[in-house]
Design brief:
This protein has about 120 residues and is of the alpha+beta class. The chain has one domain: GIY-YIG endonuclease (3-Layer(aba) Sandwich), CATH 3.40.1440. It is about 45% helix and about 25% strand. Strands 3-1-2-4 form a four-stranded mixed beta sheet, sandwiched between helices.
């Protein structure tokens, strides 16, 4: 890769918008759902797809259903997105994402099996 191509990729990365938010992973046959948050929704979805492809449970809380029904029984759904503002620090953005998860948990009456990445 030449220097111009590297510079173009670097600029593209710097100018890309960071999108975080809240997502849900559900096991269709059991009806179980896990609500999570991430400062990088695209990355969270890519990880989920990789885990499905490699048949690895995303986390221990999901392992029993994953083992019983298999990776194909699970789905990934984005519930709400927020975009990092140019004036926000990474910490402020993480706090906003965590607050959004808390609002979703309160809205759904969810308990302890929810969490941030």
């Amino acid at each position: 890769m030449n220097d111009a191509a590297k510079k173009a990729l670097k600029n593209q990365y710097k100018n890309s918008k960071q999108v975080g938010g809240v997502y849900r992973i559900c096991c269709v046959p059991s009806g179980e759902c896990w609500v999570r948050s991430s400062p990088d929704l695209k990355g969270a979805k890519n990880r989920f797809e990789f885990q499905c492809a490699t048949k690895l449970s995303p986390e221990p809380a999901m392992a029993p259903a994953w083992k019983q029904y298999g990776a194909g029984a699970f789905g990934f759904e984005i519930l709400e997105e927020i975009e990092k503002k140019e004036t926000q620090t990474s910490r402020e953005f993480l706090e906003d994402v965590a607050a959004l998860l808390e609002m979703w948990n309160e809205k759904q009456g969810e308990g302890d099996d929810n969490g941030a990445e």
